[in-house]
Amino acid sequence: MAAGLSGGDGWNLPRGEEDGEVDWSAIIVMAIEEPIINIEEIDSDSFDSKEAAYDFYNEYGGRVGFSIRREYKNNSQKDGKVTSRNFVCCKEGKRSEDKRNRKIKNRRAETCTDCRARMLIAFNMEFGKYIVKDFKDTHDHPLISEDCAHMMPSQQKIKFVQAIDVELAADYGMPVRKAFELSSRQAGGRESIGFMKVDVQNYIWTRRQNDLELGDVNWLMNYFQTQCLEDPSLFYAVQLDSSAMITNIFWADSKMILDYGHFGDVLTFDTMYKLVYRNRPFAVFVDLNHHRETVVFGAAFMYDETTDSFGWLFNTFLNAMSHKALRMILTNQDAVMAKALVQVMLDTKHLLYTWHLMQNAQKHLGNLPVGGNGIKSVISKLMYEIEGKEEFLLE
User: Fold this and answer.
1) Tens digits of residue pLDDT in 52-73
2) Hey, which CATH number is domain 216-352, 3.30.420, 1.10.1660, 3.40.50, 3.30.70?
3) Highest mean predicted confidence (pLDDT) among 40-44, 173-177, 220-224, 257-261
4) 4, 18, 181, 251: least CB-packed within 10 angstroms?
């Protein structure tokens, strides 16, 4: 066999007599040609904490080209302090045999190779620090090139400064993809950013979960109180049930109230949005301004869609808008909502969405033999082509 061929990632790969023909069976254990860090320096190094040791070994793995993970640890029986901790290569160990089903055709690819690379630290009582007790730097698998090192699991970490940018982007409604691209450009490219797009998504989700530790309602109340300091004209109200539990929540900021004063003669009330994880209605009062741009006059989280809930919401909306009456309001075909509107907004004309009328006509009358293009063409003609009452009755 000819001499080994030095690979671009630092490995000596065995080569056959013919070009391009590699004898992979000859690959047993391969080591790095030039270690990044002197082994003697590592053996004599000490760390103030196990976290500092992890960061050190993780940085070493990133420069060499392998990902790390925490393995076992030993705790003191007296105070529970970690007395020793083992950090290993992510390919340490082997997958145990799955005895549940031996007839699986497409098994998952084996990722572990029982790699023996590791760094073992132990707490030294005399110095009060963690020292390296054992260090092995040989790997039995190819290493990752430097330009792909940021994709390794242990290297994917959002730094404090980057986290601030991600939070600001999320607060302003920027999509995860654009937030990741912005961070990539600031860092000089994806290979320099140190994390992946999925890490941004996970960070935002974790942050929101932490914000909601007090509970959804408590967090929302704290948010309203904070916003009142910045916007004294912010209006919000809550409805309580017989057990003093919050059921419905309505709010409108100063811009919403001002827009309603200018463009609030006609509006649309929509409850089609749902909170997916609770299936609760999210209601909005919206309309168009003089530039045909959508403007929001108020929003509400509702516990249910009953007459009492709608009645409270419509009354609260009028209170927030200084009881300025509406001329017309457009809603869907909901009998419960219509009943609440009649009770609260006596002088307001109640109109229905043409889209809902068309959908209901197709749902309930779609099988009628009306000829032509079906019931849809008939309803369209009645709504858009006929103007007078007499002509409508004749049709």
Assistant:
1) 888 888 888 888 888 888 888 8
2) 3.30.420
3) 257-261
4) 18
